[in-house]
């Protein structure tokens, strides 16, 4: 359910703050909901205290609430009176359990039919007289938390794994500085690692082809996802993460 609130605290250097909104079922009680910069839709400026925010709330494994799918609406603190254009949010529509199960079954049947067709047309004729090793589809058979979070478009999931660096990107120096690089997991999925170098040391010796282990929070996108919070939280509100490279831990 989409809620509306106002930013009452914002630490721009750390990239997070709190939104004050009404408690569901009460017109007088309010609550402050944590929001990280990564939860905001792209916009042309940094958020600030007084901004009105449309957002949704998710409950993490530890029971704490945080905002996601957020966008800045009209600010109540400005003096020009002009309305800012709101970013479009696609509300999450609840689906009936039975409908969701039938949909998944239909997808599985289609995948099995395609796999059977490919096998009968290509692999079966090749192996009629020759014994070949069985080649499994690692991505399809992978039931790891990261793979499942990507397939189900989930965010805010604590994950731990390792991968090979395929590309090193320029540091993001807007707001909190982040070292950025892309890794490839064993199942072929790619992840963008966004490591806060204002709170943790930078991996200066990082090269393409290196193996990096990580523990942090997964956020979904259509390119495989992003892992951040790979460091400790100085305010103690979030589970601390880390990166490991060539026997050294960065947190």
UniProtKB/TrEMBL annotation:
Residues 4-75 form the Cold-shock domain. Keywords: Membrane, Phosphoprotein, Transmembrane, Transmembrane helix. One of its GO terms (molecular function) is mRNA 3'-UTR binding. Coiled coil: none annotated. InterPro entries: Ca-reg_mRNA-binding_domain, CSD, CSP_DNA-bd, DUF3465, NA-bd_OB-fold. GO terms for cellular component: cytosol. This is Cold-shock domain-containing protein.
